[in-house]
Design brief:
mainly beta; six-stranded mixed beta sheet; six-stranded antiparallel beta sheet; 11% helix; disordered N terminus
């Protein structure tokens, strides 16, 4: 018999009673119904830090530099609201009619995005020297998530990092425009230290190009801020003793992957209301620079792993194209329906479109044509429309994964919005596992779940965070919650993995799982669940049992 502990906080509020918090622990006990030759012994590894399937692929970072590129046709912007309307309406109707068991694969309604490009249409330069483009992929950096809580957008521009944006279902808002882009990959011809300028050309005239404009040596696709100004600022914060003003909560869960490696799933939670952002009403663009960095250190202080990410870097097109449509649809008015983006800097009027000619959102402005040619826009109405768009852009959670070897580690993570920051720290322990004993992973606490098959189809179409390994049990995808504080009425699920002994001389023995909820302050049992037979979680050819269970939080609070 072995067990794993994972702490959680459950809050209870009642009329006439002050709010109180109960700190509990989930204890999962594994029983082997088999001969003692394959039973877990007292010397077996503590399972609170092990993890996922030995069949999972371990990603090897390379010196490949990934360059996101967005290409728009400003000549189509004037007609965009009219041309996009039928597509957008059809997408909304489809969204509400679609069953949760069916994937939502909307057509990209943004007619200003240039869709028919191939790798041959691009040229890429580093410090003025042309580079060979090794890879070319199309992707969408935002997709819609439909789960048990409702629906929201998620964004990603790195192989493993995922930003979950604000909840939209409570606001009855439906995203109808997906944001497509292309990803160019190249290996620098001369890998010099320091930072280098990147320029992207598209072999077509009169286009608007947004592209990553900087590369610094030592980066990996999962740590793109190394050496950059934003990265150095995050490193300074981590090296300081400052506490920060943005409240963060952090959960880490570890899953065995084979050999002496484990996959660590990290989830960071924060409030979008604590993040600085500013809308520029002159060109319908959002200013928000939300960066995250995590450093994992061994006990001797050396760095074992690190990651970073930046939502909306300076080259990112955070323009709310056709933003006036929000007013038109939400308020039934057409007063601003003729507002269209207008290119101010004709820097791409030559034979090619270049990413550094009038770089960034400042190249756009809005004009409002009428019979007198142009009138001044209604600033108050624009501000209302833009502020109502916040849930489409501001995040509330960040997830990523890292690979670690056996050992003890300290993880510290910082989130910065350019004005304020928050930081969090947790201890990680990866225990050794030789595959000869019964073992248990961490218990990841979750609030949201959805169909894994649906998520796989939606993410595959968008080429979304392709190296992120989902936590799946019986075709249900569980999303760990960065906030492990659970209130009455909220859903609470535990995802964990059981590793059966891989002994050729002994067949796999039946396994049962016994879950208990303990008060971590007193050690008293709050809830004792009946043991379950784990056979239904077994998959052919795998010694890993992936288990997801609902925890009745309301029943706990009554005790």
């Amino acid at each position: 018999m072995i067990h794993a502990l994972r702490a959680m906080k459950v809050s209870k509020t009642g009329i006439g009673n002050p709010a109180r918090a109960i700190l509990l622990a989930v204890a999962v006990l594994l029983y082997v119904v088999a001969p003692a030759t394959v039973a877990q012994t007292q010397d077996s590894p503590a399972a609170s830090t092990q993890a996922t399937a030995p069949q999972r692929h371990l990603t090897v970072q390379t010196n490949l530099v990934l360059v996101p590129v967005f290409v728009y046709d400003p000549g189509r912007m004037a007609q965009a609201p009219k041309e996009e309307m039928p597509c957008a309406r059809a997408a909304v109707v489809t969204f509400f009619k679609l069953a949760r068991t069916e994937p939502y694969l909307p057509k990209d309604c943004d007619v200003t995005e240039v869709q028919d490009l191939s790798g041959k249409d691009f040229r890429l330069f580093e410090d003025g020297v042309e580079q060979h483009i090794e890879s070319f992929e199309a992707a969408a950096w935002r997709t819609v998530v439909r789960d048990n809580l409702g629906w929201h957008l998620q964004a990603s521009a790195t192989p493993r990092g995922i930003w979950s944006l604000s909840e939209l279902s409570t606001l009855k808002k439906v995203p109808f425009v997906t944001t497509g882009f292309h990803v160019l990959g190249y290996v620098p011809r001369d890998a010099k230290e320091g930072c280098h300028r990147i320029r992207v050309e598209v072999n077509r005239p009169n286009l608007l190009v947004f592209a990553r404009d900087e590369y610094c040596g030592g980066r990996s696709p999962s740590d793109p801020l190394v050496g950059t100004g934003q990265g150095k600022e995050l490193e300074r914060i981590l090296a300081s003793e400052k506490r920060g003003k943005i409240p963060l909560s952090l959960q880490g869960a570890t899953f065995y992957t084979g050999g002496d490696h484990s996959l660590v799933d990290l989830s960071l939670r924060f409030s979008s209301n604590d993040l600085y952002r500013k809308w520029d009403a002159s060109n319908w663009t959002l200013y928000a620079r939300i960066g995250v960095m995590g450093v994992i250190r061994r006990e001797d202080g050396t760095v074992a792993a690190r990651f970073s990410d930046l939502l909306y870097p300076s080259y990112w097109p955070t323009l709310d194209q056709g933003g006036a449509k929000y007013i038109e649809w939400a308020k039934g008015t057409t007063n601003l329906s003729t507002a269209v983006p207008r290119l101010l800097t004709p820097g791409t009027a030559g034979k090619v479109a270049v990413s550094d000619s009038g770089t960034g959102n400042s190249t756009l402005a809005l004009s409002f044509p009428n019979v007198a040619n142009e009138i001044a826009p209604d600033e108050a109405a624009i501000k209302t429309a833009l502020n109502s768009s916040d849930p489409f852009w501001l995040p509330t959670r960040y997830e990523t994964q890292v690979d670690l070897r056996v050992g003890d580690y300290d993880l510290e993570i910082v989130l910065n919005d350019g004005w304020n920051f928050g930081r969090a720290k947790i201890r990680l322990t990866v225990e050794p596992y030789d595959g000869k004993q019964l073992a248990l992973s961490s218990a990841a606490l979750c609030k949201s779940l959805r169909s894994a098959a649906v998520a796989a189809k939606e993410n595959a179409q968008a080429n979304f965070a392709p190296q992120y390994v989902p936590l799946v049990s019986k075709d249900i995808l569980f999303s760990p919650s960065g906030d492990t504080s659970f209130a009455k009425g909220e859903p609470l699920f535990a995802y964990f993995e059981v590793y059966e002994p891989q002994l050729a001389e002994n067949p796999a023995a039946p396994v049962s799982v016994h879950m208990r909820i303990l008060d971590s302050n007193t050690g008293n049992t709050k809830e004792d669940f009946a043991p379950i037979d784990a056979a239904s979680y077994k998959q052919a050819g795998s010694s890993v049992l992936r288990i997801g269970r609902k925890i009745p939080i309301d029943r706990l609070l009554r005790k």
